[in-house]
């Protein structure tokens, strides 16, 4: 009985090793010590068990080495960069600029895919479910931090994401209706304090980054104003120009034309530094809003737990791309400043932003 089982095991082992040898594309292999393995049936029959096992021990490590080398050559195929907003917007333009620059350095295409919805939340949900192999990336933005503060999400924007690096940041511009009788921030605050809750400010939706940022602005300025949410920044700007609301914080590219044409008046920028698009505008701090210095930011991220060497490769490519003078000039036309960072610096900033917006949301009763 034991002898019969031993023979069956030997036959099974023989067939297994024979299939492994036959699966090799090249019909003949040469090994040290003149061991020769051939696919010819007669020669196979002459190979002893010891020779076959010895040959296998030589073949399999070689295959493992080839497998390891292949995986070291990241990227082996095109990479997807998900933009969680509609095509044609500022985020989409930014993503395509960065994708082109990084593609040249990685020698592989980075293909931009737009997956909009829910203020960027749907696109991020798609990405965190993707394989953690470095072939699916996302353009993160300020909205993802504010979403985490007010939305019930199926993922954790901190735990389920691998930050690669910051890309750029830019200011919100405080703009008012052109017929409002104010010419600077001081006059706007005086009007708001004289008539509490009489001024309406627009945002791109309850709990959006523009809503929370304006709420923070009002707190720092010590004014009481009324929030009017819209479904998009475009709709909010339309009503601001028409005079249905009096002011709002908006991205620089979205209001540059309206300010130039006199349809809106710009009073200050939200960031700690002045904007190259509006060099004559003071910062909020310079205009008297102490402690208010917030920016719109964009960064590159991937699903959680991608290999460290891939994070490093992507970060190095991104940082190198952001140093390109031509790319920096294109950013300036969007009112953005390149912000190269390490993955850890981006991770820390993201966590701080989520904590800030959660505190603001709580203070104005949004949960």
Automatic annotation (TrEMBL):
Chain ranges passing through the membrane: 52-74
Domain of life: Bacteria
Keyword list, A-Z: Membrane, Transmembrane, Transmembrane helix
UniProt cross-references to CDD domains, sorted A to Z: PBP2_Bug27
Family annotation (Gene3D superfamilies): Bordetella uptake gene, domain 1, Periplasmic binding protein-like II
InterPro entries: BUG, Bug_dom1
Coiled-coil positions: none
Protein family (similarity comment): Belongs to the UPF0065 (bug) family.
Protein name, UniProt field: Tripartite tricarboxylate transporter substrate binding protein
């Amino acid at each position: 009985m034991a002898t019969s089982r031993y023979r069956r095991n030997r036959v099974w082992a023989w067939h297994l090793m024979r299939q492994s040898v036959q699966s090799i594309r090249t019909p003949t292999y040469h090994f040290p010590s003149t061991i020769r393995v051939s696919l010819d049936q007669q020669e196979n029959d002459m190979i002893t068990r010891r020779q076959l096992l010895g040959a296998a021990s030589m073949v399999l490590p070689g295959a493992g080495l080839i497998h390891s080398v292949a995986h070291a050559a990241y990227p082996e195929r095109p990479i997807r960069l998900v933009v969680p907003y509609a095509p044609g917007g500022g985020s989409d333009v930014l993503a395509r600029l960065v994708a082109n620059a990084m593609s040249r350095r990685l020698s592989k295409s980075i293909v931009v895919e737009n997956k909009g919805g829910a203020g960027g939340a749907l696109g991020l949900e798609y990405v965190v479910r993707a394989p953690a192999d470095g072939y699916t990336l996302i353009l993160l933005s300020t909205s993802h931090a504010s979403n985490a503060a007010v939305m019930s999400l199926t993922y954790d924007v901190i735990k389920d994401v691998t930050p690669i690096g910051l890309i750029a940041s830019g200011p919100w511009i405080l703009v008012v209706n052109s017929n409002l009788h104010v010419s600077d921030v001081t006059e706007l605050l005086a009007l708001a304090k004289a008539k509490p809750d009489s001024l309406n400010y627009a945002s791109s939706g309850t709990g959006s980054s523009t809503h929370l940022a304006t709420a923070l602005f009002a707190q720092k300025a010590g004014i009481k104003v009324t929030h009017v949410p819209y479904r998009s920044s475009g709709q909010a700007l339309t009503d601001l120009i028409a005079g249905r609301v009096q002011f709002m914080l908006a991205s620089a590219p979205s209001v540059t034309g309206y300010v130039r044409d006199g349809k809106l008046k710009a009073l200050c920028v939200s960031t700690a530094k002045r904007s190259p698009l509006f060099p004559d505008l003071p910062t909020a701090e310079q205009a008297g809003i102490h402690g208010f210095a917030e920016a719109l930011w964009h960064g590159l991220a991937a699903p959680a737990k991608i290999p460290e060497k891939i994070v490093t490769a992507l970060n190095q490519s991104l940082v190198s791309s952001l140093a390109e003078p031509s790319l920096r000039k294109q950013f300036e036309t969007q009112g953005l400043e390149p912000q190269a960072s390490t993955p850890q610096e981006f991770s820390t900033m993201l966590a701080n932003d989520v904590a800030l917006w959660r505190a603001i949301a709580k203070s104005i009763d949004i949960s």
